[in-house]
Amino acid sequence: MAAAAASSSMAKRKQRKAATEQEVENHDEATVAAEAGPENDGHTAHAAEEAAAAEEGVEREGGGEGGAEGEEGPDAAARGGEEGKEEEEREVSFDELGLDEQLKRALRKKGLDKATPIQREAIPLILEGKDVVAKAKTGSGKTFAYLLPMLHELLKLSAEGRIRKSAPNVFILVPTRELCQQVHNEASSLLEFCTSKLKVVQVNASMSDKDIKVALSGPPNILVTTPACVASCISKGIIRGSSIKESLSMMILDEADLLLSYRCEDDIKALVPHIPRSCQSILMSATSSADIEKLTKLLLHNPFILTLTEVGHAKDDLIPKNISCDAKDKMLYILVLLKLELIQKKVLIFVNSIDSAFKLRLFLEKFGIRSSVLNAELPQNSRLHIIQAFNARLFDYLIATDDNKSKEERQANKGNKKDSRVSRKQLQQTLDAEFGVVRGIDFKNVFTVVNYDMPPDPAGYVHRVGRTGRANKTGASISLVSPKENGIFEDIENMLKDVENRDTSCISPFPLLTKNAVESLRYRAQDVARSVTTRDIKEARRQDIKNEILNSEKLKAHFDENPRDLDLLKHDKLLSNKEIPAHLRDVPEYLIDPTTKEASNVVKLSRAAMDIDKPRRRKRMGFKGGSGRSSDPLKTFSAEGKSRRRGRKERDGEQDRRKRKKVES
Ligand SMILES: Nc1ncnc2c1ncn2[C@@H]1O[C@H](COP(=O)(O)OP(=O)(O)OP(=O)(O)O)[C@@H](O)[C@H]1O
Which residues form the DEAD-box RNA helicase Q domain (predicted)? Predict the structure, then answer.
């Protein structure tokens, strides 16, 4: 059925859109119509459907011709529960989704055969040609949820010789350059067995116009870029608006919840008049926000809204933890966590400024703990390489300064951007807007995310914590909260309470840290912290950029040719050449209290049990392993039933009904 739906979706969509053109006056009305489901004829059924869906952890809204509206009334919900019981373990394979053989081969090569819930739900809808808004948790596999059906459709058009060639057929818009690269890599890897048939390129604002023109010559079938870059290509005539109108069949906005906060609204608006009405639009997002609504209204027609929420409570290891401490003691606390091995490696530590990152790196280094700093100041090649090296487990601790500006701050900046006399520095800041060091980046095998500084808003928290517990992996997050950060901490708690529908706190105190352990290292930590001067920080920061700039070009050329040589350049090199005194490098046994020793042993044992240090190939790729189903963001959604999932039969019936409705109308 999905295969059948797939067979002609892009063409069908064009006919369907043309047919509904008269009914649908404009985007806004279309969206309102889709969301006004309960007022339509299928009110009762729709309500029952929604109740069942809420139980299941999936919400479906709208979708035009029939959308998700069931026709069987409240019975559907009850039956869904019972039938579903038999099918709890039912998983949908990529075979069942009717995808192109060459794509399935690429998936098999990656060790993937089962779709994640968001993929299971979104792929058939996209193959049917619907506009889709898909909201699902970080790390749930959203990228393949849109790449697979999009590539399937293009391969089909290509086989039929129906590809239009005046401009790219698909735009994938993402907020940052890092994401351009990542999505481009993912798409290329899926095209491994059909490289000659489709071409995917990524362009971003760091490239010269000449390079962009070269990349776009052809033109490619799929363009991965940022809204700013595509708007600039149009205004410079590198891509002609009329060609877009002729060729564009699909537009995808990934990490849509971040796009507007990356000052992309005007750029997206500049693109809108060139998008043909027949273009299918997909919006992917990890969080819900007013921005998503705005984009939906701006770009989508009568969209199908798919919301996958996590079902049930997270396993213990995924319950976020916090440590309350004075701001001045944060270095001490992180030292205790790392040095006494109370948290599982690899660790991603978030701080709110580049100086704090280098201060922390220098501080930890004096205790023999090597780390690397990832920040927006570094050249892009270095940033990409740091992420690759960290993913490949070449070092265990990464200190990241994410883009921690709140939306308000960004918008204030945007005001500056409009000033007629823009200084070089402001221009640089404007360019920096495309640097999103970590948001949406698929870090592999990060076990612990530490919020050394709290993020500016709850959405920032969701994106940070979403860097762990990805792709069948378990994970933990720990926030160090100073009294000054209690406000944002409460906001985050309230957000989590809302998500989990709970009255009580969703973040529990980190259990493995004893007062004794903290006090045992207090004096050493204070001494060392005092010895890290502002001058040292400045020098370390300067040195690091210098090294990375030198490395950057070498990196690009070398790693393009030798992608396996990741450890050639070390990003966690010591910043100082002074030897580490023994009393700081090794914590004397007598200082560690028995409880802490035990806790540390538990962490080590669980590490050994998980076989982390000897990764098998499949594990290293991050596709298998991890703990149980409930801790896995790729599996913890039940799109088809909390008690048990509804039978496939019923869903097939539902799709048939939708198709029938379409035919009837
Ligand atoms: N069907 C699958 N089975 C197992 N792993 C998968 C599957 N699909 C994708 N993955 C892996 O899951 C990881 C997370 O996927 P992806 O980056 O698409 O998540 P996401 O939902 O976009 O997260 P974010 O919102 O943080 O960007 C990736 O490493 C990806 O390779």
Answer: 92-120
Closest residue (by CA) to atom 20 of ligand 1? 139
- Distance between CA atoms of residues 558 and 545, nearest Å: 19
The two three-digit tokens of residue 122, written as one number:
């979104």
Pocket test for ligand 1, best of 108, 121, 140 (most atoms within 8 A of CB): 140
pTM of the model as a whole: 0.69
Whether ligand 1 lies within 6 angstroms of the CB of 441 is answered as no
Q: What is the mean pLDDT of each run of 10 residues along the chain (665 residues)?
A: 42 42 32 32 40 52 46 32 44 91 95 92 95 90 96 94 88 91 95 91 90 93 94 93 93 87 82 93 87 88 83 54 91 95 92 93 93 84 83 90 54 42 36 52 86 89 82 82 94 82 78 88 93 91 78 63 57 69 75 80 76 47 34 35 37 44 38
Tell me what ipTM this predicted complex has.
0.98
Residue 149 covered by a domain: yes
Is 623 a pocket residue for ligand 1 (Cβ < 6 Å)? yes
Claim to verify: residue 436 and residue 470 sit in the same structural domain: yes
Ligand 1 pocket residue status of 440, Cβ below 6 Å: yes
C-alpha torsion angle, residues 644, 650, 654, 660 (rounded to 10)? 180
Distances (CA, A) of 562 to 47, 220, 378, 559: 56, 25, 22, 5
Burial of 579 (0-12, 13-18, 19+ CB in 10 A): exposed
Q: Is residue 639 part of a domain?
A: no
Helix axes 534-561, 354-365, angle to 10 degrees: 90
